[in-house]
Amino acid sequence: MVFKMWRCYAIKALAILGLSTFLVTGMQSSAVSGERSIFGESPPDIERYFGQYWTRLTLGHTEGELNVTYTYSPGQIRSFFSNAEDLRLSVGFINDQAVSVRIHQDGAGFNIPLERFEPSDHSMNIFDDVFESIFGYRPPVTSPVYRQILQPGSLQGTLHTVTYCISQEIAMSYEWISTEDYIWFIRFFQEPACV
After folding, report:
1. CA nearest 43: which of 61, 33, 55?
2. Residue 104 and residue 108: Cα distance in Å, rounded?
3. Does 55 have pLDDT greater than 90?
4. What is residue 93's predicted lDDT score, i.e. its pLDDT?
5. What is the mean pLDDT of residues 172-184?
6. pTM, whole model, 2 decimals?
């Protein structure tokens, strides 16, 4: 009788150990494979990453191309910036394939918190955090294209635009107003020059 009880407990313990190992291994592999392919994905695929869309705007047909922008919750990206209560994450689609991601507020900018502001570095570390939140991985700092300037700071009135590579075939453009810590928008898009 004692042997049967011991055997029953041993089998349960092994089952629990096996299940625990499976779950831990599964969680680790999903954390490693958290990388999200954004560009070229369809609206339902993007919705799996960012949740139900808030708004949908059809921008029209241009030479047979259907341009649609979906807006989603920015999630944790909001916490990276000050005065970003109305922050939005928008994904632009052409013929149901994602081509760009934009972080913005309608009619207002948002600030990089002073403790995270690095003016000599164009506050790139905070942009790396935004990139990671969107794409599911940190931009590879060892990549030869990382932070390679594609368009040096251009100036139009008080609007300054900077565009650079952040990862293989992905560029980031951002616009700041008057002072480098006040951002008008951040945009990620595919860029063949980033190789």
Report:
1. 55
2. 8
3. yes
4. 97
5. 91
6. 0.78
Q: Which residue in this structure is represented by tokens 């635009």?
A: 161
The pLDDT, as a whole number, for residue 66 is 92
- Give the angle subtended at the CA of 47 by the CAs of 43 and 53, to the nearest 5°: 90
| Category of 75 on φ-ψ map: left (φ > 0), alpha (ψ -120 to 50) or beta | left
Q: Using an 8 Å Cβ cutoff, are 86 and 109 in contact?
A: no
Q: Is the pLDDT of residue 53 over 50?
A: yes
Determine phi and psi for 154, rounding to 5 degrees: -105, 150
Interior/surface letters 35-53, b for 16+ CB within 10 angstroms, e for the rest? ebebbebeeeebeebbeeb
Q: What is the distance between the alpha carbons of residues 49 and 164, in angstroms, rounded to a whole number?
A: 25
